[in-house]
Structure prediction request, 710 residues.
Amino acid sequence: MASLLQAVILGLLIGGVYALMASGLTLIFGVMNIINVAQGAFLVLVAMLTWWIWRETGLDPILASVITTPLMFGLGWLLHRTLIARIRGSSPSMSVLLTFGLALTIEGVLNVTAGNKFKSAAPGYFEESYQIGPISLPKPQVYGFLAAAVVLAVLYLVLARTWTGRAIRACSQNPSGAALVGVGATSTAALAFALGTATAGVGGSILSVLYPFFPASHYDWISRLLGIIVLGGMGSLPGALIGALVLGLAETLTATYGSLRWSTLVFYLVIMLVLLVRPQGLFGYRLREDAVT
Amino acid sequence: MAGRSTRSWSTPLTSGKWAVAVAALVALVATGCQQKPSEGAKDSGKPIVIGISLPLTGDFSQPGGEAKRGYEVWRDLVNAGGGVLGRKVELKIVDDASNQDTVVADYTKLITQDKVDLILGTFSSLLNYPASAVAEKNGMVFVEPAGGAPKMFEQGFKNLFFAQPATAPHQADVFVEWIKSLAEADRPKTAAYPTQDDPFTRPVIESMQKQLEEIGVRTVFAQVYPAETTNFQTIASSMRSKRPDLIAQGAVFEDGVGLVRSLKQLGYSPKILFQTSAPSNSSQYSDGIGVQNTEGVFYTVSWHDQAKTPQNKEFVEAYGKAYNNASPAEDAADAFAAAQVLQAAVEGVKSLDQKKISEWLHSNTVQTILGPLSWNEKGEPQGKFILAQWQSGRVQVVGPAEAATTQNIVHPKPGWK
Prediction:
């Protein structure tokens, strides 16, 4: 019983962090139909930056997201203005090419500047945990989860309660309708892209404490994140949350009751089964093609 | 967290988008990135051209980059000393992006189009396996700096030579011997064996488990985990409930750091901790787990920077001079040794005749910075690894006795600090 509880709690803690990392990806896809393959590279970029800030100033890596998040927001805005906006209206496969190129560029720049070595931030609490009876809650996981929960809640409020959020959602649901009522498509898209990139600011900071990383780590992360949003329903924020929690639980439960070997397989099996029943993912929904295009 | 109306969050899905999304996912999982090998082969002039494909990007970019440095340090030392057979040496290194298909294409191109004089191996069993087949098919001698998985040598190749002291299943022998040398009361009673599903770590741990079971060490935990595993709390918590005296992990790198961190979070410290290659990554390892937690960690390794082997001192100095006083990684030393092996054979037969080089290597012992190397008919080396242990923030060689830098062995391992 204790091991079940331990596995479930750990799975949820891990899943919460995955959810934050996937939220930017799904947001960008929802608004712009852009599959941002560079999201994993953004995470690793921020992790590297956070590691460097922590190393130089001793600032807590998770708190360092206060610095990295605005930077990533700015970077996202800039990238949208200079590169992403140019492929507006082209097929989504163009976005994969463009953002994959971005990912390779970031990997290459990190290789040259930061060096091709494993790094991990190790603040004082990185190997401590809270002990509640037989259950251990590793402190970095708990702090990472809390930070992720706060950011997701803020993101949710921004999208649900502000005019900017409504504009983003409007563009996501019906771009031409949104344009008709006066929503500026380009600036809204830039904002959404910047917001999506900014989530990597916190996600990457958490990553730097939880997992060792090096420039090529982004391949692992982007495949995991794509899996999450495909399961949850591409473009759906609650879907990303549920998909991430399922991945977290699949990892810890299969590791506890089976073998870690099978955890990836179990997760992809869940995806396949869900897609058989709901081809649009858990929270995605499908419109008739003739009504959309 | 879920909205009042989940629909309002979602975006219309069309089959076109799906196809792209799924294609993107598949493409990313399946490939990594592809890069064209660099162009511009010069037709054979004076220098001896050695063709090499290395994983300079992708998953194995770290060891690949070190191997490149090892080869280049060797080239510079050899050229400074007048070259091989009086000819300068030129390396033609291309990037295979850690991809099996690319490595095959690379070596095929190097051999058949660029017509290089010699080739040297790449990094990891995963890449050396297909690459060695290309070499064998084309009758080229293939000296590999890494790639000790058992299946490498089941191919029955005549041109394959593994330039390390022992293959994977024998790399932990020196550790098992140390355990056997302990008094009955000091030996571990129980052991846990987590290992990454990697051709380089798994055989080490599985062979160790078999050998330790034979001397009565009871196995209480054995699990194989995939390479992409990032969370180790569940493994650590399963092991804690079994309380093993010995934890022997087949760790590549980040999994080794991850497991130690998780064990410490859960407050479990075994009496003996062994990890395959993670602890050999000097400061990357001690920074990752905290230098105070390295005390007493064992690993086996093919090379040590203070070993008194031919040219080792020159190698360490030349490497430091070329790379900001950095100390070489084991992978760089292995690459250097592989080049030494090829050099010795070429000079031994005084020609570039591949058949003669292969025969010479089968019947001679080569002195390298890793110690003396010799091979059986399948290309398996016949030597022994070094047993190393972290002590007071530094790595000491503790076995075999003739190579030891200290007689002191930390046992049992102190608890986490």
